[in-house]
């Protein structure tokens, strides 16, 4: 491990920080890719984590692909078309799949510019809150490439086809207030209060029964690729299981007794 992704954990909330601030947290770096993927797998395994926050160190959230490596044809950008294709598969595409597969609620606390694959990384999270300094740009065509990181799949799902097309065809940066108006983010805060706001949101999520949180997320994820019929079937099956849990009994008792529930994940 190289500390290109910092991880802290307290009270059931994990905070993951992209940590190459001098390069604006690019996600072409092989260590960064490995560490993001390993962290996402850990979130799935460690049931003491109930909610996670993803943010960037320094001025930017992430500047996406390393342009200097593209210019110099280094790393995944070196070699012929087959080599580049394999580089995408072994790199940024693993990040997209790993982040989309995270089972706990994941909040992107977008502290500054999120460009290209950095923008799409925020979109694969469940909730985005942004600092006033955040900027979102789906600017692949501006770099003479196309989205190879799943952006063409996730962006229309988050902002609708028309706004996705506008962002992807113009490559224009979208500021935080426009992102709020478009529903791309749910809150805009001052830079100083971004992490506190993310933590407050994470705590409100984490006080709910953890298994039910994971299953709710799984149902919503499945909903993006399933029919209503399929989702009703799946939710009936999950519901059969959660009705048997101690946390369900505790939640009902706590509501009736007008007290805070204490949930164990059982
Ligand atoms: C808006 C910015 C992101 C941040 O602006 P600012 O805070 O003013 O910082 P700068 O002064 O511009 O940059 C500081 C140093 O970091 C270097 N840097 C920044 N971004 C990159 C980058 N993408 N690649 C390489 N280096 C970068 C910058 O050169 C400075 O270093 P020096 O002092 O040595 O020069 C702004 O930086 C910006 O607009 N950056 C470009 C964003 C961009 O267009 N990114 C590419 C998007 S396409 C993409 O993401 C594609 C892929 C493809 C394949 C795999 C994986 C990922 O993505």
Automatic annotation (TrEMBL):
It holds the Pfam family ECH_1. GO terms for molecular function: isomerase activity; lyase activity. InterPro entries: ClpP/crotonase-like_dom_sf, Enoyl-CoA_hyd/isom_CS, Enoyl-CoA_hydra/iso, Enoyl-CoA_hydra_C. The keyword Kinase does not apply. It comes from Flavimaricola marinus. GO terms for biological process: fatty acid beta-oxidation. PANTHER family: ENOYL-COA HYDRATASE, MITOCHONDRIAL, ENOYL-COA HYDRATASE-RELATED. CDD domains: crotonase-like (cd06558). SUPFAM superfamilies: ClpP/crotonase. It comes from the Bacteria. The gene is paaG_1. The lineage of its organism: Bacteria, Pseudomonadati, Pseudomonadota, Alphaproteobacteria, Rhodobacterales. This is 1,2-epoxyphenylacetyl-CoA isomerase. Keywords: Isomerase, Lyase. Its EC number is 5.3.3.18. Belongs to the enoyl-CoA hydratase/isomerase family.
């Amino acid at each position: 491990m190289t500390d290109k992704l910092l991880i802290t954990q307290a009270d059931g909330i994990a905070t993951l920080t992209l940590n190459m601030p001098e390069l604006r947290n690019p996600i072409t770096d092989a260590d960064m890719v490995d560490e993001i993927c390993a962290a996402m797998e850990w979130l799935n395994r460690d049931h003491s984590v109930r909610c996670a926050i993803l943010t960037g160190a320094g001025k930017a959230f992430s500047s996406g692909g390393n342009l200097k490596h593209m210019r110099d044809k280094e790393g995944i950008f070196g070699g012929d078309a087959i080599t580049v294709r394999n580089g995408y598969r072994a790199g940024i595409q693993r990040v997209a799949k790993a982040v989309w597969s995270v089972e706990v609620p994941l909040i992107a606390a977008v502290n500054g510019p999120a460009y290209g694959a950095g923008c799409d990384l925020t979109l694969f999270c469940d909730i985005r809150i942004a600092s006033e300094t955040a900027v979102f740009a789906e600017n692949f065509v501006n770099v003479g490439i196309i989205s190879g990181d799943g952006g063409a799949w996730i962006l229309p799902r988050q902002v609708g086809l028309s706004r996705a097309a506008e962002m992807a065809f113009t490559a224009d940066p979208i500021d935080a207030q426009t992102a709020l108006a478009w529903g791309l983010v749910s809150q805009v805060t001052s830079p100083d209060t971004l992490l506190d706001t993310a933590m407050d949101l994470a705590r409100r999520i984490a006080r709910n029964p953890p298994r039910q949180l994971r299953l709710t997320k799984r149902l919503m994820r499945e909903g993006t690729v399933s029919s209503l019929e399929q989702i009703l079937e799946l939710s009936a099956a999950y519901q059969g299981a959660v009705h048997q849990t101690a946390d369900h009994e505790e939640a009902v008792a706590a509501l009736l007794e007008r007290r805070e529930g204490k949930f164990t994940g059982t």
